[in-house]
Structures are given as structure tokens and as C-alpha cells.
Write a structure and sequence with these properties.
TIM Barrel; three-stranded mixed beta sheet; eight-stranded parallel β-barrel; binds 4-nitrophenyl beta-D-glucopyranoside; 16 helices; 17 strands
Length: 508
Amino acid sequence: MRAPRRAGRGSRGRVPTLFPILAAACMIRHEYRRDRNVLEKGPRMSEVQFPDDFSFGAATAAYQIEGAWNEDGKGPSVWDTFVRRRGRIWQAQRGDVAVDHYHRYREDVALLAGLGANAYRFSVSWPRVLPEGRGALNERGLDFYRRLVDELLSAGITPFVTLYHWDLPQTLQERGGFAERDCIGWYADYVRIVVDALGDRVKHWITLNEPWVNAVSGFLFGDHAPGIRNPWTALRVAHNFLLANAAGYEVIKGRTSGSSVGVTLSLIPVYPMRQNDRDRAAARMANQFANDLFLDPLCHGSFPEPLWRRLGVLRPRVRPGDMEAIKGRFDFIGVNNYTRERAFSAPWIPFIGVWMTGRNPDGHEHVDQGVQFTSMGWEVFPHGMYEALMLIKERYGNPPIYVTENGAAFEDRLEDGRVRDSKRLSYLHDYLVEVRRAMDEGADVRGYFVWSLMDNFEWAFGYSKRFGLVHVDFPSQRRTVKESGHWFRELATSRRLPSVDYRGNGRG
Ligand code: PNW
């Protein structure tokens, strides 16, 4: 189990999670220094080249960028509801306007083209298309995505469409949402509508974004919508996500030809907190929970042992045929990787007896004993990207992979019309070196998407965390390409990794 991401000021204390967080904080201080030098940083390659058909793009999600939360017939999502609950979001911020992408999509596609991207990953808002989640269709909502796809195609950018990035229609949540098996059918109906509308022009589909994070943050820790804290519900939701992926996959494959369908997973390599047998065992358990819980059913058709045994009465009901339906229902795996975590034996944690954490509790950008942490408090650990990709290659049958998210939040400053975000640029550089290294060792990586195209609404952290290649001044909505964006353009157009001391047109 792992700690919820802190919502910063305005979030409520979570009493049951506080003790382990404090304990972890104390241990981390010592342990980062201890094994930092043990872990190789990965070779600095002088010339890193990517294949001609490699996708280079950026990623976004509907709720985080679109705004227009109640325009043109859109219904409310669980996030529209959640952000209105007291104390849930940093400074009570909301995605009502976000970065106004719904109205500025043309400008944003032009930005993407300016970044040299040949691909763009965005998500469709289910309640924009089906305001009640099912039943009456909202053509105006669907039209927005038709226009967006046309705009992308005419700019030579391949759309990668995520069908669910956490913004479930509120009316469906009121019927139990993904905790109910009915939701699988509602989801399949919704997918059919979107695929029928866009399937002639969209060839790359992602059924779900990070089902593990959605289940854990939304239903176990409650720091994301719908804010439920119930381990039984969380595991039911996880199982239903696996079935929903299978149902979505079948719908898309059945209604399109030549499409490629994947599911995006958050992969977080988990390391032992200390080099002892107990913590090594804890790390194995934590890896099963954070990574194998979805990879095993998808690739092997079974839940990971011994985690599954340990879960005992928490285990969701698995009906005959479920695992067969789940297995192999993807053409590619989408990998989101940002950081690593640490696990230690924690007998007071029910069932799995393990706690994991990756964040320094102060949640600010800083360097601790030579290790860079982002403004999410996440450790910069490029080697973890290599590990995540090689895990899929070595243990899960080497399917095609897209890195569907990778990036970092730093405390950027807009000065004289420039954002000199050298830390982000180095982060991207060092992670891409690891992507290339995994490819050299046989991982079948087809593309890479930076999270994110532009600064946006970072869930419980509101607008306080900036992940973009493009800076957004939120009051004026003015967009400014950061130095990392100029660097990315160099990368995407040359397919060669520019050095970190890049001095392109961003510097002047
Ligand atoms: C992703 N972790 O979530 C989401 O897909 C995005 O919507 C989000 O904005 C982005 O990452 C940045 O947070 C994650 O704990 C949630 O390592 C948690 C983790 C990673 C990604």
C-alpha cells in the first residue's frame, strides 16, 4: 500500500495513514544516501537516435485541460462533484475553466505542431458525449472531438485517444460506478459511440488510463474522485477495470479495421527501503500490488501470488470466465512512469503488511543528498524507466509498448517571456536515454509522450504543479513554449536526443 498524494494546504489529515507516512519520512532521510551510489545512473550516450517511425508526442486529459465543464450540453463528472467538496483540492481550485482547451484547441494543436510532435494523446470526456453516462447522446460534445481530430490530422499529428481518464459521469457513480459490474456494459456502450464517430480517422485507442491509480486514489485513499475509502470497493473496481478493458477492446476491434488498442498502466518500480530480507520481501509484495496486479491478469490471465493469497477476504469476486476474458485483450501496453517508490515491512498494515512511499513529505522541488526531487516530491530516477520497460519485455512476453506519460513538475518561472526549465529538460533527457537503452536490449517501444503538453489542473494539487512543455499563465491563458519545449522540438524533428546543455531558440 502507498500513501495518497498530498493535496497540500486545504486537504484533511488522514489519521490512519499519518503514522506510516511519518515513519517512512524518517527512514527515507537515511536510506536515500545509503544506496544512491549502488544504483547505476545509466550510461551517458553521446549519440542517441530513435527510429524514423517512432512516435514523439505529448499527453493530456480532458478534465485537466478542457474547462467548459457545463457547456454545450455536457453533464457533470465525478471530478466536477469532487472539486466542490470542502478540503479536497489545493486552495479549493476547480477544473471548470482549466486551460480553456475546449475553446482554444486550434491554438493548442498549432502549439503541438510547433513542438514537432507527430502524435498527441488526449482523452474523451464521457459525460461530454453522454451527459447521463448512458442513453441520450450529446452531439455537440461529440462534435468537439470530431473537430479536434480533424485539426490534428490536418497538422500531420496522429491522435491517440484515451477513452477513460477518470472523469466518470456523475450519474453513473450514483449507480455505483465501476464498483458495479453494470458499469462494464455502460462503458462498452460509450466506447461504441465514440469509436463509431471517430473510428474512421483514429487508429490508436487507449481503453483506460492508470486503472491502478484510479482504484487506489479514488476508492482506497479517497484523495481523488469519487473520494471513497474502502479497500473492498477499491479491489472490486480494479477487477471491473480489467473486465472493462476487455469489453472496450472487443468493441473497438469489432468495429474498426487496422486499429491498435492498448491500456495505459502506471508502473512504479518499488525498491526495498533498507537492504535487509524483510524489506526485500516487502518490496516484492509492493511490486505485486503496484505493478503486477494489472500486468499479471492482462498478460497471464491470473492474479499475482502471493499477493492474492494475502488479500484474503478483500479479494473481489471473480466469476467463471473472467480471467479468460481479461487475458491478452490489448495490442500494446501504455506505460506511465515518473519515479520509483520504497517499501518496508509494516506489520500494522492490514493484509499485505507492507507500506510503500516515494515522496519526501515536504512536497516541494528540492535536492536531498544529491538526489533531485520534483515539485510533486517525487524522486528523479531515470533507471526506473528502464526497469519498467524491461519488466514488460522480460516477464510479460515483450508486447509493443508506448510510453504514454513521462515528465516532471518543477517550479517554473516566466521571466522576460522565457521559461528556463533546465531541470525538466535534463529529466526528459535522462529518461529518454533509459528508453533507448531498453530498446537496445529488445523492449518493443514504439513511441514516447511527455506529460504534459501544457501546464494544467493537477488533480488534488489544483494548478500548483506545472508539468507542461508549454507554460500557461492561468489568469490570461497565455501560452509560452518553455525551453524544454524548444528542446523537445529539436528531438522530435531530428529523432536524435539533443544534449542537456541545449542552447536552442528558447534561449535567444
Ligand atoms: C498520472 N505516482 O497520474 C496521470 O495519468 C495524470 O493525469 C497526472 O496529471 C500525471 O500522472 C501527473 O501526476 C499519476 O504516484 C499518479 O507515481 C500517481 C503517480 C504517477 C502518475
